[in-house]
Specification:
About 45% of the residues lie in helices and about 5% in strands. With about 450 residues, it is of the alpha/beta class. The structure holds flavin-adenine dinucleotide. Belongs to the DNA photolyase family.
Length: about 450
C-alpha cells in the first residue's frame, strides 16, 4: 500500500483541490491532515470569529470525507513537525500541500521540506490553490511584482486558468491513524452575534445562489451599502472553503458586466497576495514611506475608542463599525470609509485600525487587510494617495436614503431619509431627543491637518 499525506491549510475543501487530487492519483491511501498550529495561535491572529468559522470548515471537511469513506485527521503543534511526524508514522512517501502565500506559510513549507528530505520523503507543493494566479507568476519588466493594479489586472485577465476539478468520489484513509477531536463552533466563546456559518457546503451554496442572483447586478450595486448586494464569499475564500479558480471560472461562464466587475474584484485578492509575497514586510511596515508622523495611540486614545465603538458622531462611519462588531464582517464601502476616517481624518497610524479589523473580521487576511489598509492610508498601491473620503458625502452617495445607518445606529432610527447623515444640522431641541455623540473631529480641520502632514 502506498500512502500520501495531504496537509490542509487555507484550502478547506474537497472540490477543486489539486493536492488531494494528486495524492489520490499517486497513492492507494491518503491521510487528510489539518494541524491546529501553535505558531498561529501565538501570533494573536487566532481570534474567536475566525476560530468559529474554522471549526465549521473543519467539521464540514470531516463530514465530506466521511461521505467518501475517509475522515479528517486533526493534530495540534507546529505544523511542519506534526506533518513530518504523521508522514513517518504512516510510512507516507509524499506530503502534498498548497503553496503558501504568506511569509509564515513559506517558512513552514521550507522547514517541512527540510524535515521530509532528511527522512527520505518528498514534499509536493501545488500552485493555484489559495489564489487563482500564484504570486510571482506574473512580473512586469524590471521588477519582481506589480505595484499598480490596472496593469496587473490586464496581465492577469490574459492568464489561462485550469478548469476546476470535481470532488473525489472515494478517499481511503489508513487504519489506526489517531486524531484529536475536531474543534466545534459551540466551544468558541466571544463570537459576533451575527457571524455566518462556515464550511464548504455553505460556501458552495452561497456561490450557486450568488451566480443565479446577485452577480448580474454586481456592477451597478456593489457599492450599495444597505443593499447587501455583494457575494459574501470573502471568509469562504479566506479559509479556502471555495476555490478561487472555481469562483473565477463560474463567474466567467455566467458572463455579463456584473461578472466582469466581480472577477475584477477577485483579481484584487491575487494582486494583494502577490504584493505581500514579494514584500512580506508590508504586513507591518509602510510599503511606500510618505514620512508620516502618525498621531500616537496615547494622544488619540479617545478618538480611537470612539471609532472602535462606532461613536464618532459620523453616522455612516459608526454604522459600519457596528456592523463589524455585530457580524464580524463589513461591507467594502464601509471598510474604505472607516479606514480613511481613521488614517486620514483622525490621522492615526493605519496599523491601529488594521489590528482592530483583524481582531474582528471573519475574513481577516494579512494580505487583503494590511494592503487594503495601506492602500487607503496612501502608503500602499493607491495611485492617488492624497485622496480623503468625506464621510458625509460617502453616506449620501452610497446610503442615499439612510437605511444602512438606521439599521446599525438605532439611536438615529427616528430620523427619516438622508437627514440621518447630518444629525448636527438638527435644532438643539431636536438633537436632545437623540442619544448620539457630537462629531469627534471637524472635517475641514482634519483635511487641513492631513494635507499639512503630507506636505501638500
Ligand atoms: P465581493 O464584493 O463579493 O467581492 C468578491 C471577492 O473579491 C471578495 O470575497 C474578496 O475575496 C475579493 N475582493 C473584493 N474586494 C477586494 C479588495 N479590495 N481587496 C482584495 N480582495 C477583494 N478582504 C478580505 O478578504 N479580508 C480582509 O481582511 C480585508 N480587509 C480589508 C480592509 C480594508 C481597509 C479594505 C478597504 C478592504 C478589505 N478587504 C478585505 C477587501 C474587501 O472589503 C472584502 O474582500 C469584501 O468586502 C468582502 O465582501 P464580499 O465577499 O461580499 O466581496
Amino acid at each position: 500500500m502506498t500512502v500520501s499525506v495531504v496537509l490542509f491549510t487555507s484550502d478547506l475543501r474537497l472540490h477543486d483541490h489539486p493536492p488531494l487530487r494528486a495524492a489520490l492519483g499517486s497513492s492507494d491511501e491518503v491521510v487528510p491532515l489539518f494541524v491546529l498550529d501553535r505558531g498561529i495561535q501565538d501570533t494573536g491572529f487566532d481570534v474567536p470569529n475566525r476560530r468559529a468559522f474554522l471549526a465549521d470548515c473543519l467539521t464540514g471537511l470531516d463530514a465530506g470525507l466521511r461521505e467518501r469513506g475517509g475522515r479528517l485527521v486533526v493534530r495540534s503543534g507546529r505544523t511542519a513537525q506534526v506533518a513530518a511526524a504523521v508522514a513517518a508514522e504512516t510510512g507516507a512517501a509524499e506530503v502534498h500541500v498548497a503553496a503558501g502565500v504568506t511569509r509564515y506559510a513559506s517558512r513552514r513549507e521550507e522547514s517541512l521540506g527540510r524535515e521530509l528530505r532528511s527522512q527520505g520523503r518528498r514534499l509536493v507543493v501545488h500552485d493555484g490553490v489559495i489564489t487563482a494566479v500564484p504570486p510571482g507568476a506574473l512580473v512586469p519588466a524590471g521588477s519582481d511584482h506589480y505595484a499598480v493594479f490596472t496593469p496587473y489586472f490586464r496581465r492577469w485577465s490574459r492568464e489561462r486558468l485550469r478548469d476546476p476539478y470535481g470532488a473525489p468520489r472515494r478517499v481511503t484513509v489508513p487504519d489506526g491513524v489517531g486524531s484529536e477531536p475536531i474543534p466545534a463552533r459551540r466551544e468558541v466563546t466571544g463570537t459576533a452575534g451575527g457571524l455566518v456559518r462556515g464550511g464548504e457546503r455553505e460556501g458552495r451554496a452561497r456561490l450557486a445562489v450568488w451566480r443565479r442572483g446577485g452577480l448580474g447586478a454586481y456592477a451597478d450595486r456593489h457599492d450599495d451599502l444597505p443593499g447587501d448586494a455583494t457575494s459574501g464569499l470573502s471568509p469562504f475564500l479566506h479559509f479556502g472553503a471555495v476555490s478561487p479558480v472555481e469562483v473565477v471560472h463560474r463567474a466567467r461562464t455566467a458572463g455579463g458586466p456584473g461578472a466582469e466587475a466581480f472577477v475584477r474584484q477577485l483579481c484584487w485578492r491575487d494582486f494583494h497576495h502577490q504584493m505581500l509575497a514579494a514584500r512580506p514586510a508590508a504586513a507591518d511596515e509602510e510599503y511606500r514611506d510618505r514620512h508620516d508622523h502618525w498621531r500616537s495611540e496615547r494622544e488619540a486614545a479617545g478618538e480611537i475608542a470612539a471609532w472602535k465603538a462606532g461613536r464618532t458622531g459620523y453616522p455612516v462611519v459608526d454604522a459600519a463599525m457596528r456592523q463589524l462588531r455585530h457580524e464580524g464582517w463589513m461591507h467594502n464601502r464601509g471598510r474604505l470609509l472607516t479606514a480613511s476616517f481613521l488614517a486620514k481624518s483622525l490621522y492615526v497610524d493605519w496599523r491601529v485600525g488594521a489590528r482592530h479589523f483583524l481582531d474582528h473580521l471573519v475574513d481577516g487576511d494579512i494580505a487583503d487587510n494590511q494592503l487594503n489598509w495601506q492602500w487607503v492610508a496612501g502608503t500602499g498601491a493607491d495611485t492617488r494617495p492624497g485622496r480623503v473620503l468625506n464621510p458625509v458625502r460617502q453616506g449620501r452617495r452610497f446610503d442615499p436614503e439612510g437605511a444602512y445607518v438606521r439599521r446599525w445606529v438605532p439611536e438615529l432610527a427616528g430620523l427619516a431619509g438622508p437627514a440621518v447623515h447630518e444629525p448636527w444640522r438638527l435644532t438643539d431641541s431636536e438633537r436632545a431627543r437623540y442619544d448620539y455623540p457630537e462629531p469627534v473631529v471637524d472635517l475641514s480641520e482634519a483635511l487641513a491637518r492631513f494635507r499639512r502632514a503630507r506636505g501638500g
